[in-house]
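Continuing from the previous page...

OK, I double-checked the sequence for Conserved protein against my notes and this is the correct one:
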Amino acid sequence: MDKWIVPREKFSKLFPFSVDAKDFFLKYIKDEKFSVCYITGRLKQIADHLTYSFQGEIGHMYWSVRYKGVNTRVVNKYVQVYFDNKEGDINDSVLVSFVFAKELGLLGFGIITDVELDALRKYVYTDETSGFYPLRIGIKVFWLHNSIINSWKDYTKWEGIRKTRNSPLIPLPAGVICIENFKGKPVKPFIKDFILEMERGIEETLSFYNGLKEEPRKDFNQANT
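Thanks. Re-ran it with the corrected sequence; updated structure tokens here:
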């Protein structure tokens, strides 16, 4: 994939697994040039999708979105963040995604890089027995809970960050929800402070993925047996 799909120059510094990538990402956060979406699912669902970042395109996960007239809100938010200008250029801003498991809380966060509508193919681990999931959201991962880094082959050992119901950092209804306010207050200041506090964890996550690039890969189901 990395030989055929390459970063645009404006965002190229976000993609290496380096301190420079961390600093470039955090500059968007410090300058408040970002918006926020929450992805929430069951732990097994999250693990099935996050494994792509371990065994597929290293450091990049996908999330499958169920067809309900297609989730136009996240598509519209993507267009708003990256393309909503009169110059016909790409905005110098990013769409941040927080990834939650209902059972554990916050597992990770990153930048939404792409949205793909695909009626003919699906992500290999997506269960479509109760409906189909034609929309895929791509995320460059910048932070994972350290339990995932330590036990990436066994999701039963994963943990998450749990907050009280008064905090905006809680799982929302399943799926993808882009938010600006929580209980009448803007979420951006809280998200900004939280991400900046995770600087060391971002470095550890990028270092982890950098190490995975050289590891022999095997099927995720084999890795969990």
